[in-house]
Amino acid sequence: MIEFRHLPDDHPDLKHSPLLRAAILTLRYAEDNGAIGITGTKAFKRTFVKRAAEHFDWPGMSAEELFRYNKVLNEYDFPPLEILHFLLIKLKLARHYKGEFRLTKTGKELARHPARLFTALISFYVLKVDHSSYGRFEEQPFGSWDVWLNVLNVEIDRGAKEKHLYSVFYQDRAAGESKGWRERAVFSSYVLRPLVWSGLIFEKDASGGGETERQYFKTPLWRSVLKLDLDDTLEPIRQH
């Protein structure tokens, strides 16, 4: 069973979570302004989407990049905001009421307690959401979060490339350079991307074999908040 440790609200490692940062900004903006306007299809109006793109500081999705291909932004043009909107409603931290997104009592309370918000938001997002529902291929990789997280805990302790991680879980399907590209994409979007968006791991480009491949590392937040079966077998990180 995956356990999340409880952190104090001022714990410095919480800053590594893009989704938590975005949730706090959204909840506090809604509270400060009374509500956030939504469209007839219950998406955030463009004025707030623009603000979110400018203030979320989302890795790989700066406002400049988003507006490079769009004169205006709708909620679906900014996927992190779309999934955040879903999560806040699903967790009953906010509700739709008369054309507005309004905070609930719980939402107002958790907006002031980042650590509690992180536990509620991230544990549900990573472990309970069907990530294939907003993925490119709408497919799920074989496996479970208990297996994925415990194995990743070892494999990315010093960093690992995407192809290596895929081969660890699905060795029989990973042979060849081109074979299994679709399966790797499904694995990446269903397992790795939610962990990046949560702030538990981060990615960077690594060159190898004449091509660029993503490499994944734990953030300090992974070590602070996750309690996993093989933690005791890992070498402690030296502080310089």
Descriptive overview:
With 240 residues, the protein is an alpha+beta fold. The chain folds into two domains: 10-129; 134-230, Orthogonal Bundle (Arc Repressor Mutant, subunit A). The protein is 45% helix and 13% strand. The chain has ten helices and eight strands. The protein has helices at 18-33, 46-55, 63-68, 79-90, 105-110, 114-128, 145-155, 162-169, 181-198, 220-225, and strands at residues 3-4, 36-37, 94-97, 100-103, 160-161, 201-208, 211-218, 226-227. The protein has a three-stranded antiparallel sheet with strand order 2-4-3. Strands 5-7-6 form a three-stranded antiparallel sheet. Helix 1 (18-33) packs across helix 6 (114-128). 28% of the residues are buried. The model has no long low-confidence stretch (mean pLDDT 90).
